Amino acid sequence: MDRFxxxxxxxxxxxxxxxxxxxxxxxxxxIARECASEPVSIFSTRDQAQKSDEYFLSSGDKIRCFFEEDxxxxxxxxxxxxxxxxxxDRFSHDARLAEIAVRAGLPKPALYQSMYIFKQPRVGGAxxxxxxxxxxxxxxxxxxxxxxxxxxxxxTNGCLxxxxxxxxxxxxxxxxxxxxxxxxxxxxATPWPDLTQAVPVEVEAGTxxxxxxxxxxxxxxxxxxxxxxxYTLHAVDARAAYAPDNWLQRPGLPLRGF
Length: 258
Ligand code: FE2
Prior knowledge:
Blueprint: H1 4-7, E1 9-12, H2 18-37, H3 48-57, E2 63-67, E3 74-79, H4 81-84, H5 86-92, H6 95-103, E4 109-117, E5 127-130, E6 138-139, E7 144-149, E8 160-162, E9 173-178, E10 181-186, E11 199-201, E12 208-212, E13 217-219, E14 230-237, E15 241-242
Antiparallel strand pairs: 1-12, 2-3, 3-4, 4-14, 5-13, 6-15, 7-12, 7-14, 8-11, 8-13, 9-10
Bound molecules: fe (ii) ion (FE2).
């Protein structure tokens, strides 16, 4: 945590035990199996784009599966497992996380979002450079990511890549919802880092990576034969103003800290 202010991220090896990882993984796989057994018909309808927007935009207070482009492989589960599922709840609420949040500048965290990302062997795709602060906007900026490796993650199976110190660069875009339509708007033309500035965060299963919401990061496709499961939590400062046009709204689901 010593270099968090300077680098914009910090790595905690061995943060979660094999037992905790196993429980979360088993639960995520069970949810994915349930989803696959009742395929979401909206992905095959004519107005697919609009329906899948609705499916995503209304998922902030639910547990939903999202699929790869093949339509059958589960890409991720989101976005309120940490409040709605007892096993995810247990994994996500931890006095040590509360302590890390304080050190990351979040004495009063509000946990908005959870995602379980499968990044399946040979199928899991890339996620381009972005800043998480574009997607969960507060005034002032406060979103902080807590990323847990369920598998060993390296550059062959799609580990995180970050730009150390890049959290001091401006917020480049914002994801805004108006009249049920989502749009990524450009705020600042600062280019994304070039690949010489990117550092791979290769970690073992059980590692926690905490990073500032302004830190540019991406992940490459999983070209290996191994899965790269990861679980992320996003917390904001409960005292900051949460943008009413953020995509993620949780009507009827109270916010909690760690
Ligand atoms: Fe991200």
